[in-house]
Amino acid sequence: MSRMLTSIFMIGSIGYFAFRYRYRIINVLLGSGWMRRIAVGSIMSMPGVKRKMMQSVFGGPSEW
């Protein structure tokens, strides 16, 4: 029982600190070139994201 409570407490603590310092963690992770390349490549491989990005960068039909 105490082992389960310890596990829950540790997971909660890690989640809290990850949420609190999320922008610092993202900056550290994306600070290296190869991690940034992997992140951008994986995001751009999603069809909806890529289409939206290309429309906003190179123009597309206006939504007025």
Tally of discrete structural domains: 1
Name the structural class: mainly alpha
Straight-line N-to-C gap: 60 Å
Mean of pLDDT: 87
What would you report as the Rg, rounded to the nearest angstrom?
19 Å
What coarse outline follows from CA principal-axis ratios? Answer: elongated
Q: What is the H/E order?
A: HHHH
Largest sheet: none
Number of strands: 0
Report the β-strand fraction as a percent range.
Answer: under 5%
Helix content: over 70%
Low-pLDDT segments:
none
Number of helices: 4
Protein name: Na+/H+ antiporter
What does this entry look like structurally?
This protein is 80% helix and 0% strand. With 64 residues, it is an all-alpha fold. The longest helix has 19 residues, at 2-20. It is elongated and about 60 Å long. It has one domain (2-57). The relative contact order is 0.06. It contains 4 helices and no strands. This is Na+/H+ antiporter. It comes from Neobacillus ginsengisoli.
Helices and strands in order:
Blueprint (H helix, E strand, L loop, with lengths): L1 H19 L1 H8 L3 H12 L2 H12 L6
List keywords for this structure.
64 residues; mainly alpha; 4 helices
